Amino acid sequence: MEFRTIDKLQKNALKRSATDFTRLGFAIFFMIVVLTFTFLNNGGIPNSMFLAVAALIGAYMAMNIGANDVANNVGPAVGSKALTLTAAIIIAAIFEASGALIAGGEVVKTIKNGIIDISAFDSHPEQFIWAMMAALLAAALWLNFATMMKAPVSTTHSIVGAVMGAGIAAAGFHVVNWETMGSIVASWIISPILGGVIAALFLFAIKKSIIFKDDKVEAAKKYVPFFVAIMSLAFVAYIILKGLKSIWPKIIDILNFIPFVSLQTTNDPTFMTAFSIGLIVAIFVYFFVKKRLYSGLTALENTKESVNTLFTIPLIFAAALLSFAHGANDVANAIGPLAAINDAVINGGVSASASIPLWVMGVGAFGIALGLALYGPKLIKTVGSEITDLDQIRAFSIAMSASLTVILASQLGLPVSSTHIAIGGIFGVGFLREWLHIKDENNHTIEEDTLIIMDEELNKSAYKHELKILQDKSDKTQSDYTRIVNLYKLIADEKKIIKSTKKNIKKAKKVQYVRRDAIKKIVAAWLITVPAAAILAGTLFFTIKGIMI
């Protein structure tokens, strides 16, 4: 029997090793293709080998973004079983790549959020190239490590910390925009709190209006169209403001070709424009969903599980749209520094923004998709099921939080991180579940149990006092002896009630729907992301500088 077990373990280990080597082979093949293509495509310019190596590192960074960051978009949908892992990877890969290629932007800021003052490199473009290369590699290595540790971290914070560290190493502390860094630190607190509060409020609203009702089917007919319409409004506005802003002027130009349409061309979509378009879509969605529900709910059972199924399709749309917006925005984390290096190598100088060739955009887009397909499942499972248990309603609330928090924060000028918002949303629904459990189905709270204990303690004290009086009585009657026996029984009963109630309180307090070890690991990773990436980037800069000089 033991030999069979050992043999089985060996076979499983060999199978796992073969899978790991296959994944590594695909990743290395992609990076070699990028390296070769870049070198051959730019072989006639000085420092072309540097550019080729930078492209290889950019490809490595893009794959790590796919492996780590994309899990936040599809993890809740997978955890709730609205999507299988394979379907989620396919949808996310397609929409991430589409978002990057279609709406990734023709011009990307080379230094994310103005972290460093690039004028310090005007007379030293080669040091700028080394710094950007060090930043790319440091951010990619940190993301790789975080993925191995199953910790979802912000790729934006990773590249920001890396650019800061490389900039300090190259030009000193004065090169850093500390005000911007302060806003990054603020986002560590603002993002998860906002995401958690909004997700918890939506989950509570759905529970209060549908799940807690006696007739859940009738309540679902009334409120599900409303919640899906709000989701449509939020996501349309989110996609316009965050996913399509780089190609907005082109969209306006196309719309102006339609008869009787005359729109003013603007560089970025305004909030009112996004909200108005979202509202029109939301009204259409409301009546469409309402009609479908009234004609298709006859077979629906009056259970929470049945109501959950109504949120499956909205969740699939949410995962796709979040992936599209993420690809459009976060591709800059992979190719921003690469675009900066490309511009510096070709033009021999340093600029605040750089045109991005299609091949550079392709490196980011396909790198993210490949990284997700090869190494994404680990983080998708962590986000979807290893922090708290999710169903479709909880995952729907998290998706709502992801879009609404970004919109709200952008209008208030608050710095936020999409990764921290999504994880904060998961924490929020988990802690709400704990709070609802404490208030259990009969509204029987810990406070009420505490009052019961106090009442029983008073009764026990009264019985003990009466018992003492009777025991001290010299001329006891038969009724006194009977009462003494009864008092002993009453005191014993009170002790049992107090012990049982204390046990209930202890049990209620022990219930944890959010895994505390996951919280500690994720928060620790968040806190050290910027400094860790900065130190690593500074070290890599000096290493590259030492090799080149």
TrEMBL record:
Q: Which residues cross the membrane?
A: 21-39, 45-63, 83-108, 128-147, 159-178, 184-203, 223-241, 270-289, 310-328, 356-375, 395-414, 420-436, 522-544
The organism's place on the tree of life at top rank: Bacteria
Subcellular location(s) of the protein: Membrane
Which of UniProt's keywords are assigned here?
A: Coiled coil, Membrane, Phosphate transport, Transmembrane, Transmembrane helix, Transport
Q: Which InterPro entries match?
A: Phos_transporter
Q: How the protein sits in the membrane? A: Multi-pass membrane protein
Q: MF terms per GO, please?
A: phosphate transmembrane transporter activity
Gene Ontology terms: biological process: phosphate ion transmembrane transport
Residue ranges the record marks as coiled coil: 453-511
Q: Which cellular components does GO assign to this protein?
A: membrane
Q: Where does the protein principally reside?
A: membrane
Recorded family membership:
Belongs to the inorganic phosphate transporter (PiT) (TC 2.A.20) family.
**What's the protein here called?**
Phosphate transporter
